[in-house]
Write a structure and sequence with these properties.
The structure is a single chain. The protein is mainly α. About 65% of the residues lie in helices and about 0% in strands. It is built from 16 helices and no strands. It has helices at about 5-15, 15-25, 45-55, 60-65, 70-85, 90-100, 110-115, 115-125, 130-135, 140-150, 155, 160-170, 175-195, 195-205, 210-215, 225-230. α4 (about 60-65) runs antiparallel to α5.
Length: about 230
């Protein structure tokens, strides 16, 4: 099976109406975060089924698929990589991790990051230095910054919160709404595991947070306390 074979299959599955909706939903217009991205019009469940069929695709072919101009092709490649990473030995895991970080140029929308970073980057760094995440968090690339914070979900699931909070602090002054949402989401997940840890961070930083970040972070708080945060009365 080659990339060309897979792309012919994807082309046959495409739906122009779904593609047009995706172009709008993922903000592909001039000056928007997904500017220039193009879609075939394939739903994610269909891509996940295909990923199971093509899970043995060689890494060089998967990388070629990741370099496609079509969004769904790149998402399919990332789903294949996450599966290969989860089943691989340490050597393969390192190869996939290195491949991932060498190809962030093509991991260039929020769904691509969110479907993969916490399944590859976070797990690989679980028992290693987390320094690469801090470099990503300070990147000029919106998507690399999002990879940095989303990768920490792997740590949160192990009740390790330090890096999530430290990277959240780095990103407090970020100008991008997609980073505000991602940081707020991560803080909310920290709070689900340990409310006191999240609130400790919020008490220190909530007044300086972008509004969207704060709203996401306190979404599950009891309503009276949520309102006090929103009104700056804590």
């Amino acid at each position: 099976m080659t990339v060309r074979d897979i792309q012919q299959r994807l082309e046959a599955l495409g739906d122009p109406e779904i593609a047009a909706h995706s172009q709008r939903f993922f903000k592909t217009g001039p000056g928007q975060y997904g500017e220039g991205d193009i879609f075939r019009g394939i739903r994610v469940p269909a891509l996940r089924k295909l990923a199971k069929q093509y899970k043995a695709l060689p890494l060089d072919e998967t990388t070629a698929l990741l370099h496609s101009p079509f969004h769904e092709d790149r998402l399919l490649a990332l789903i294949i990589l996450t599966h290969a990473f989860s089943k691989g030995d340490e050597s393969l895991k390192k190869t996939i991790y290195d491949l991932y970080l060498a190809n962030t140029k093509w991991i260039n929308n929020w769904d691509l990051v969110d479907s993969s970073a916490h399944k590859i980057v976070g797990p690989f760094l679980m028992d290693r230095s987390r320094a690469p995440l801090y470099r990503l968090a300070r990147s000029a690339s919106l998507w690399e910054r999002r990879i940095a914070i989303i990768s920490t979900f792997a740590f949160i699931n192990r009740d390790q919160f330090e890096d999530s909070l430290a990277i959240a602090e780095i990103l407090l002054a970020d100008k991008e709404d997609l980073i505000h949402k991602a940081v707020g989401w991560v803080l909310r997940e920290v709070g689900k595991r340990n409310f006191d840890v999240e609130e400790g961070f919020l008490l220190q930083h909530y007044r300086a947070m972008p509004r969207t970040m704060l709203r996401y972070a306190i979404e599950k708080f009891p309503e009276p306390r949520r309102q006090r945060y929103l009104k700056g009365e804590i």
